[in-house]
Specification:
InterPro entries: FAD-oxidoreductase/Apoptosis, FAD/NAD-bd_sf, FAD/NAD-binding_dom. Keywords: FAD, Flavoprotein, Oxidoreductase. The protein has helices spanning 13-22, 46-50, 114-119, 129-142, 155-166, 182-185, 187-200, 288-305, 368-372; strands at 4-9, 28-33, 67-69, 73-77, 82-85, 90-92, 95-98, 102-104, 123-125, 147-151, 170-175, 202-205, 209-214, 219-223, 228-231, 233-236, 240-242, 252-254, 266-268, 273-277, 281-283, 320-325, 328-334, 341-343, 349-355, 358-365. It contains nine helices and 26 strands. With 383 residues, the protein is of the alpha/beta class. The longest helix is centred in the C-terminal third of the chain and has 18 residues, at 288-305. The chain has three domains: 4-103 and 241-305, FAD/NAD(P)-binding domain, CATH 3.50.50; 106-238, 3-Layer(bba) Sandwich (FAD/NAD(P)-binding domain), CATH 3.50.50.60; 320-377, FAD/NAD-linked reductase, C-terminal dimerisation domain (Enolase-like, domain 1), CATH 3.30.390.30. The protein has a five-stranded parallel beta sheet, covered by helices on one side. A five-stranded parallel beta sheet has the order 9-16-10-11-12. Strands 22-23-26-25-24 form a five-stranded antiparallel beta sheet.
Length: 383
């Protein structure tokens, strides 16, 4: 059997995990295509760079055993099994794993002053290492406790608000929802985190930004209720969108085994993958550990369908996350975006996320061990 050339687009969690699962085999040659002029890094650690607690070089991501091309994939041609790169080069593949990740959701295009504020370094997303370095430098440039508006209140925004508040900065937390974070944590946990936000920082829940206007010594942020906030910096963490090469551009739709329908040996994993299956419906998880798990699963499916490995079965999310928010450890495992929840009747505060008669995720506050014990019990129907 001749060697299969597997190309992996993306050098983040999913891409590097897939490459590790394929490494060391004589029957597979692996090529990773990263992004032009970008050093791969662990994205889950960029918050520490933004807070000034970690140096950028400390979060570089070790590369697995594979050929590495620093170039950006612009177009995949499934008919010719060829990838066109930004440099003008092309690379052929036998099997392909798309793991190009995500990009930050931005402000609405019609928000007055937003473009100017971004160019001035006053309005910054928290998504990439470059973003984190810019935030760190902007905070340091204030030379005093900074007035910081944070737009969004999901996992990243909540942890950022907590960390910067603990450093003595004055935080205004803005969220479009009156109870932010339900889609991430489930309503019971989100309600408790919202109460902690309200007790610790200035909150504007149920509000949107309608304008960002840099002035000489400060920036004015206009909210939709007429409130004007005077701040030094605006950080936005409004979630992510899939980032894929053409012909997809947005998310790459996969089935429950991470296969792209109708394209032969093509798979997608991590933040770029939009899952459409009969189990959870339509869903997407953009988190480092889950991205790594998906990347490994995609590689195992590739091997199986080439007759080189066992069938890993359908993908079921079991990965864990943690976040320290105002001195409390928020943790979760599996798919915690499901709206159906119930609080488990135990001493620990644990919320179970259910799909019919099946627990598909668990989250909790200061209950890491108890939450993590659910990892291997997920996706099993109650008798």
């Amino acid at each position: 059997m001749s060697a299969n050339h597997a190309v992996i687009l993306g050098a983040g969690a999913a891409g590097t995990a897939a490459a590790r699962a394929l490494a060391g085999r004589d029957d597979i040659t692996t090529t990773i295509v990263g992004q032009t002029d970008e050093t791969p890094y662990t994205r889950m650690l960029i918050k520490g760079v933004a807070y000034g607690l970690a140096a950028p070089e400390l979060i570089r991501l070790p590369m697995p055993q594979a050929d590495f091309i620093a170039d950006t994939a612009e177009y995949v041609d499934p008919e010719t099994c060829e990838i066109r790169l930004a440099s003008g080069a092309a690379i052929a593949y036998d099997s392909l794993i798309v793991a190009t990740g995500s990009r930050a959701r931005g402000l609405d295009a019609d928000v007055p002053g937003a473009e100017h504020a971004e160019e001035a370094g006053i309005l910054i997303a928290l998504h990439s290492l470059e973003d984190a370095v810019r935030i760190r430098e902007a905070v340091r440039a204030c030379g005093r406790p900074a007035r910081i508006a944070i737009y969004g209140a999901g996992l990243t925004a909540s942890e950022t608000a907590s960390a910067l508040q603990a450093q003595g900065h004055r935080i205004s937390l803005i969220a479009r929802s009156r109870i932010p974070g339900i889609a991430t944590f489930g309503r019971p946990v989100a309600e408790r985190i919202a109460a902690d936000h309200q007790a610790s920082v200035t909150t504007y829940f149920g509000r949107t930004i309608k304008g960002v206007h840099p002035e000489t010594d400060a920036t004015v942020v206009d909210l939709d209720d007429g409130t004007d906030l005077i701040v030094d910096l605006v950080i936005f963490a409004l979630g992510t969108k899939p980032l894929a090469p053409a012909p997809w551009r947005e998310g790459v739709v996969v089935d429950d085994r991470l296969r792209v329908h109708g394209l032969g040996s093509v798979y997608a994993a991590g933040g770029v993958a939009e899952h459409h299956d009969d189990y959870l419906g339509t869903w997407r998880i953009d988190h480092w550990d889950d991205g790594a798990a998906q990347g490994t699963h995609a590689a195992q499916m590739l091997l199986h369908e080439q007759g080189r490995g066992e069938d890993p079965g359908p993908y079921r999310p079991r990965s864990a996350y943690m976040a320290m928010i105002y001195g409390q450890m928020i943790s979760g495992v599996g798919y915690t975006g499901h709206p159906d929840t119930r609080v488990e009747d135990t001493e620990d505060f644990i919320v179970l996320h259910e799909q019919g008669d099946t627990v598909v995720g668990a989250s909790g506050i200061d209950a890491v061990g108890a939450v993590y014990q659910w990892s291997q019990r997920l996706h099993e129907a109650r008798s």
